[in-house]
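User: I'm writing a short report section on ligand binding and want a predicted complex to refer to. Could you take this sequence and S-adenosyl-L-homocysteine and write out the structure as tokens? A short remark afterwards would be nice.
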Amino acid sequence: MKSFPIFINLIRKPVLVVGGGDVALRKIDMLLRADASITVVASKICKELQHYEKSKKIRVKIKTFDKNDVKQSVLIVAATDNKKVNTLVSMVAQNLNIPVNVVDEPSLCTFTMGSIIDRSPLLIAISSEGNAPVLAKFVREKIEALIPHSFGKLALVMGSMRDVIKGRYETTQSRRIFWENFIDHPLVRQFLNQTKKLTSQQLIALVKNNDMQKKQGEVFLVGGGPGDPDLLTFRALHLMQRADVCVYDKLISKDVLNLVRRDAELIYVGKERDRHTVSQEKINQLLVKLAKKGMRVLRLKGGDPFIFGRGGEEIEMLMENKIPFQVVPGISAANGVASYAGIPLTHRDYAQSCTFVTGHMKDETLKLEWQSLAMPNQTIVIYMGLLALAQICVELIKHGAPKDLPIAVVEQGTTSDQRVITGALSNIAQKVKREKLKSPSLIIIGNVVKLRKKLNWFN
Ligand code: SAH
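Assistant: Sure. The structure tokens for the complex follow:
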């Protein structure tokens, strides 16, 4: 560790910034957030800084820098485009042991500011000790995504409760256990996820009622997207990391499953065609049973839970059993697969509407509104339609769709194994048979399929 991270209180403390351009402005904006009392020394200053001066946010001295300017400063930032001046500022500051930062000149700095994630009062700063600021920024973006703004609000509430808790729990260890349980309480989690609006008073009441000791189970019904783990939502990832047990489907890709918390128990309830491993009824009961044991149950489903996902049935049962739950939407196969296949689902010239249909057969037959599906100027997306593909094409043609209407079948869309076969209603079934496409495959029908020739960007 070459530099020691500290958080310094700058409220109303004199800070000197040398330089008046855009770079200085960026630093000044950060320092203003910390309520520093800023003096700018520069030969000229940019428009924004002129506004700041007018509104008395900063003081400005238009002059060349000299050593008398540093007087009483607790911190100095040099952000001029003149190396000589920057070096002089650094030397003067170092002589007086005042911490100094020279923008983009690590060798002239005695402190750096790092990349900041501001969830005040919760603060995270990342440093690469001057080696790779862009990497630090990249890490910041990742953390930024993981920590919702509500964490700052919770930190405030916890701060206001500290004394009460200190009075109630004597040892450091008992207080730590209390706070760990507090953060993990479903209501507090709902507060963090912003699914429940709780006031600080309500959170404090929670503590007073000693609700913390009860372990209450809950279910997260989470859409795992079509396969590529980068298509998960932040909330999905967040809840995947919190689960005690994960109940997942056949559609969940290995890469997505790998992101579930390591210690979570994995229960596979995938359904094979004609071989229902676990019936829907049993899955519903399993979720209730696990939650009643006090577990955080992750119900991870492919795509979006509410699109051909029977998510509605699962939460109906939870509702009846008064088990808390939340639903996290996922990118459905239609969205993900179409994007990665370079096929826009709507287009001003080709399709003004898009219909999602299930191609799942009951007793070897498929009952769909063929008349309306065969109409022009639309896109039809068929889920679970691979086995019925030949029948679908025959019916559409029979009901007036042109034989040469473009159609695509996409296997394992969005993954590195994605395969796309395109053709026309009259020949696609043969092509797909020849290529031995397997499930999961999605069918896209309509003139938008033509666009793939131009727009194919993935593999
Ligand atoms: N709830 C899911 C759909 C479940 S139905 C969603 O919103 O995506 C299962 C069907 O989805 C499969 O038979 C297939 O038609 C389609 N599907 C899901 N993932 C797919 C993928 N990666 N590539 C192609 N089709 C996919």
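A remark for your report: The chain is about 35% helix and 20% strand. The chain has four domains: 14-113, 150-212, 218-331, 335-455.
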